[in-house]
Structure formats: C-alpha cells, structure tokens
Amino acid sequence: MLRRKPTRLELKLDDIEEFESIRKDLETRKKQKEDVEVVGSSDGEGAIGLSSDPKSREQMINGRIGYKPQPKPSNRSSQFGSFEF
Hints:
4 helices, mainly alpha, elongated
C-alpha cells in the first residue's frame, strides 16, 4: 500500500454561510411540521382516537393500513366443510 500525506481540508466562509442557511431552513421546516401536528391534534381526531373504545381504535388502524379481517366461522361445519363423521 502506498503512503501519502493526509489531504488538508480548509473551511471557507462560503461553506460556513451555506451550513448556516441549511440549518435555518431545517429548523423552520421542523417548526412548521410541529405547528401542523399541534393543530391536527386539536381538531379532535387525535382526541377521538385516544378516548374511544378499543374496537373502533382497532378498526381505525386496520382502515389506515388497509387490513380487512375476515369474520371467523362460528360452527364446526363451516370450518371443516361438509365432512360427515
């Protein structure tokens, strides 16, 4: 393996200004996102999801992820078909 001297990196004023502008932009986006979440939870949808019974919460989650559970069969003939014992 060839050895070489380490490369020297220089921090320029332009780099610092670019970093500051990107950081401010990210902070403003984060604030806007937090404001939207606070407003969304005060609409009542967030409060309804927390205070309602577990079945409606489960249905809400299933609807959100696209899961549609099939009802379970209630008797043995529906489980095993038309087998005669």
